[in-house]
Amino acid sequence: MTLFRSLVAPLALAALTLAPPAGAAGVTEFPTLKSGQWEMTTTSGAAASTPRKSTICLDASTQKAMLDMSAGMQKEMCTRMDMRRDGSKFITDAECKLGNSVVKSHGVMTMIGDSAYHTESSATFDPPFNDTLRETKTVIDGKYTGACRDGLQPGDMVTAAGQKINLRQMRGQAQQGQPPRAK
Q1: How many whole angstroms separate alpha carbon 166 and alpha carbon 147?
Q2: For residue 164, which of 10, 11, 18, 53 sits 20 to 30 Å off, Cα-Cα?
């Protein structure tokens, strides 16, 4: 499985569906997560799929960079991006273009203070993305686990496959038209 398929495509989809619409900062303020190390458990597809755990070291500047990156992606790729807040829930509906596919997505992120969240999202792809992916259903549970450790610096992410990447570097490489590299 390529790095794009295993990491970049899900990150792009999450960025497109779960970040605030570009230019909408005054409309719906996106939640700020506590700075430090976070563990995310992601389950995709069928109920029998194996959960994947990843870790990320966040600080305020990394969160801002991720939101800025998603706002740029939305501006380039999305024709519709609606977000609303209902108490601790952030609900997003979008229609975007990913490759040759039109992606229609719906996501609900439920915040538990600034130290945990539960996200459920679904998306359909027409035509199927990479000729195979027609529909996705994803659940992500994130929780704060304390200060960054294990040598992680803000922006570092360790994927479920054990690959270490830096989201800030990945953003810079994408801006320069270079493919992302895993360590």
Answers
A1: 17
A2: 18
Domain spans in the chain, listed from the N-terminal domain onward: 3-22+33-175
Low-confidence ranges of the chain (pLDDT < 50): 1-9, 21-27, 176-180
Is the distance from CB of 67 to CB of 19 less than 8 angstroms?
Answer: yes
Per residue in 141-158, pLDDT (tens digit) is: 999 999 999 999 999 999
Whether 66 contacts 167, CB under 8 Å? yes
**Other CB atoms closer than 10 Å to residue 66's CB: what's the count?**
20
Query: Positive or negative, the Cα torsion across 156, 149, 145, 30?
Result: negative
Instruction: State the Cα–Cα distance between residues 107 and 120, nearest whole angstrom.
Output: 6
Interhelix angle 60-77/9-18, rounded to 10 degrees, is 90
Give the separation between CA 59 and CA 115, rounded to whole angstroms.
13
Question: What is the per-residue pLDDT across 160-176, written as a single tens digit (0 to 9) for each?
Answer: 999 999 988 875 555 54
Question: Quick check: 129 and 99 in contact, CB under 8 A?
Answer: yes
Query: Contact, 71 vs 19, CB < 8 A?
Result: yes
